[in-house]
Every structure is written in structure tokens, then in C-alpha cells.
Amino acid sequence: MRTDDLILVSIDDHVVEPRDMFDRHVPVKWRDRAPQIVVDDQGIERWRFEDRLAGSVGLNAVVGWPKEQWGLDPTTYAEMRPGAYDVDDRVRDMDRNGILASMCFPSFVGFANNFFNGAADKEAALVMTQAYNDWHVDEWCASHPGRFIPLAIPPVWDPQAIGDEVRRLARKGCRAITMPELPHIMGHPSYHDIGYWKPFFDAVCDEDVVMCLHIGGGFAAINNAPDAPIDNMIILATQVSALAAQDLLWGPAFRQYPSLKVAWSEAGIGWIPFYLNRCDRHYTNQRWLGHDFGDQLPSDIFRQHSLACYVSDPAALKIRHDIGIDIIAWECDYPHSDSIWPDAPEAVHAELSNAGCSDEEIHQITWQNSCRFFDWDPFRHLSRDDASVGALRAIAGDVDTTIRPREQWRALFEATAR
Questions:
Q1: Bridge partner list, 309
Q2: Which strands make up the sheet holding 262-265, listed edge to edge?
Q3: pLDDT in tens, 122-153
């Protein structure tokens, strides 16, 4: 297969929410309570709601920066590549990268809506959560039909409210919701408590909505040494996915909800073969513990429920059939520090080819598995011929891919503002 013939659907990217995102979606009654951008004494923009503040660190939007400027220090919109927060620029960056469609996870609210979860006024927090979802579905995704797969954030403090929100958004065509990897880390019952989470599990199964578990929300499960570098968190974040898998697979959720679908977002796939081998051996060797998976192995159950998402995983791709060729899905991670831009097609093609993937397997991994799992038609708005890497890049020849220091991005932003 030629690189230009690839179809790329990225099942994990991110949006840095624009300043005006709440303006058109918060009911009039609540408008003066909506989150607002405030600027601190250092000139850093942060979101404020009640007494809570959240900003954007550098690693959230490093696309277009030289790597020596990457870091955890706060950044502002003026310093970001506009594709981080402007949907029209995002689509142009997707075209340049040959990406047909993208699922965009949140930034300032956190992957499982920890920002509003910590608010004192939960009624107001629910209103703002719904406004966020309406902005994401009705504005960000709807502005370019066929280019984004909608994703909801949950009112995670109330399982019934989550269920209601899942059903409300499903009527708009939203088939994904991002949830905490380990809710007990946030002070809620774990997924073992099937009764507590019943309204949520009922809703996602009834509406065929995917439960996305993005790495990062379970960081608190990693008891790092006090002098450990940030590398520990970045590298070990994917290992928390095994803890989340354990709670769902060995708890009651996967067995009581056979149609439950879970995407392991940005978790990588290298942990899965070892984890499943360990699960199967434990099940067959430790029968005295009384677990009952019927006539199946734990690995069978895991694969029936899962989509395993990765950015780059060359070793694991060589044993892709041990993972399950029909559950692996690629992701770009734009505009984070792990993202591949603007040369994702070349990187993906080389990695899959080096792993010995056939053309059929490449299509499964780069778009078919994701589109099937999320029940999303990739060619509803663009023909397959127009959706290829080559076709998308042909309309994006003028996209500037220059790497610029942050101060140069700021100068460009200020010049445009004038």
C-alpha cells in the first residue's frame, strides 16, 4: 500500500477549548456563573469557575514548537498553533496530516471532568457540563461534518445524571463519553460497585455509547518516589490502564453488561498481551478463587469489550494477533507532546510495514476498527477517494508547517489581532 492510499482516523486527539466556548450554550439564567478566562499577574490565561482555576500547560499544545521549549510551564492562546483551539485551523492541520476524522478529548476540565466534579454547587456544575457538551457536539464537531467523532464529558459525581446525559447526547448522535479510569481515585465508588454505576452502565449499553478511559485520570494510583522526575508519570501512565481493566474484567461489569464497550484511549497496546496471558493463566490455575467466565477465558471477554488505542507501538504491532487484530486502533494525539504531525502518514506506514502488516490489516488498524466500534460512517460526507491521505493533502498544500519558538507564535497572533 502506498502512503497516499492510507485512510487515517485518529481516535484520540485533544482540543484546547476556545475562550468563547460557553457564550452560546449556557442558559440565560446561568450566564453570569459560566466559566470565564482570567489573566493572572504573569499574563497567563486560566479558566475560572467558582473558586476553581485551571489553565493549559505547555505539553497540552506543543505542535509547532521546537522541542527545547516543551515543558510543564503554563502557556497562553497567543503562543499556541491556532489548530489547537480554532476548529477551522484544526481541520486544515488534519488535511495536511492526511487525517480524515478525529475524536477530541477535553483539556481544562480534565479527561473525566474533574474540574466541575470539584465544584461546590453541583447544580451549576451540571449546567456547565451540559453546556460544554453542547458546544463540543453542536459547534466544534458540527462545524465540519464528517471530520469529528463527538465525545461527551460526564457529570461524574452523579451516575443518574451521567445516564441522563448519555441518553440526551445520543439523540444528537454522540456515541462516546470519557470516564475516569479509576473513579475511587476521585473519591467515588469503584466500578466494582455495579449497583452505584447502574444508571451509567444501563445508558451506555442501551444507547451503544463507548466508555473511553483516557490515561492520566488515574495518575494518583502511581505512588511515585518524592524525587521522581516527570518522566515517571508520562511513561507509567499507560500502566494504570491495566488497573482499570482489572476492575472491569474481574469485577462484574463486563459479565453483567455484555454489550459494554470500552476504548483504552492513549493507553498503548504493549501491556495487553502480557496482561491477558497473566489473566488466563491465573483463571485456569487458581480456580479455587471461584471466578466463573463460563466457557470463555478472561482474554476472550476482554477482547469482546475493548478497543486498544495507540500512537506508536512498534514491538507490540509485531504480535498484533496475540492482542487481536480487530481491536487495535491508531491515534495521533494532536496537539500533545506525543503527537505525530505533520508527517503521521509516513510514520504510520513505516511502522505498520515494518511489523509485516498486510494491506487489509493496515486498513483495520488505521480506520476500520475505530469506525466499527464507534458505529461511525467515515464516508458519509466524503467519498472514500476524497478521504485518503493523498486527497486530503492535495487540498492542504498551503498549510504552513514551520516550527517556531513561542515568542514568534505570539508575534504572529498579535499581528493578526491588529
A1: 329
A2: 176-179, 210-214, 262-265, 306-310, 328-330
A3: 999 999 999 999 999 999 999 999 999 999 99
Which distant-in-sequence residues (6+ apart) come within 8 Å of 208 by Cβ?
Answer: 170, 175, 259, 261, 375
Q: Which of 100, 103, 99, 106 is nearest to 131 (CA)?
A: 106
The three three-digit cell numbers of residue 382, written as one number: 466524503
Whether pTM exceeds 0.90: yes
Q: Domains of the chain by range and CATH?
A: 3-15+87-417 (3.20.20.140)
- Among residues 167, 155, 248, 161, the alpha carbon closest in space to that of 209 is found at 167
Pairing of strands 328-330, 306-310: parallel
Tens of pLDDT, residues 289-308: 888 899 999 999 999 999 99
* Phi, then psi, of 99 in degrees rounded to 5: -100, 120
For 7, 52, 144, 290, 369, the CA distances from 329, given in Å and listed in that order, are 12, 36, 23, 34, 6
CA distance 52 to 115: 8
Which residue in this structure is represented by grid cell 496482561? Answer: 275
Distance, CA of 211 to CA of 294 (rounded, Å): 24
